[in-house]
Sequence to fold (229 residues):
Amino acid sequence: MTTPFLPLAAEQRERTSVSRLLLRRLRPVDRRFFPLFDAHAALAADALRALTSLLRDVRDPEGRVREIEALEKRADTVMDEVRGALRRSLFPPFGRVQVYALANHLDDVLDVCEDAAQSLHLYHVTRVTPEAVRLAEMAVDSALKLQSAIGQLAQLQQPRTILALCAEVDELESQADHLMRAAMSRLFREEPDAHQLVKLKAVYEVLESLTDKCKEVAKDVEAIVLRHA
Fold:
């Protein structure tokens, strides 16, 4: 009996959806957040590049640990600015929860990066494996893709491109999982020094978690695109 009314219901839903989209586009947007997102993403990429350099030479002749710590402190300042802007802003560009989640998960990337750098020195790690360096390189690749995706949020003119970048970050996280499992297997088979084994196991785990954190950021970006593009 209700079948004839289905097209009308669908048309009403479509009109409602279009109306909401128009309202979102006509609503004033506080654009101060976009430079903060960009700065946060750039700091994450810089910190991960510095970590990769540190892993290539754990003696740290360039002072990479201090560099990473400084970048993490700058990221904390950005996070404070995001919180302050959220308190003051009437019209953040996306939902307040989405804005906070994106900034918070970007900050997590830097926190874990700092943990990794400090752990190398606290554990007195004197050598690392190629797998450890590769895990860091994957995190750098993820951060660069996120930086590109986040840089496009201000306009949202190419949502498919942004979503493709997020999918690539997800794929890198899967690859990092596989690499870590293979590296762990090799470590327990071939490393004769128990102290070195424990150290490298801890290093592998924290490095692999970097791509996990990047994946969380990608999910935030994806959710924003799907809701607002």
User: Anything to note?
Assistant: Confidence is low (pLDDT under 50) at residues 1-6. The chain is about 80% helix and 0% strand.
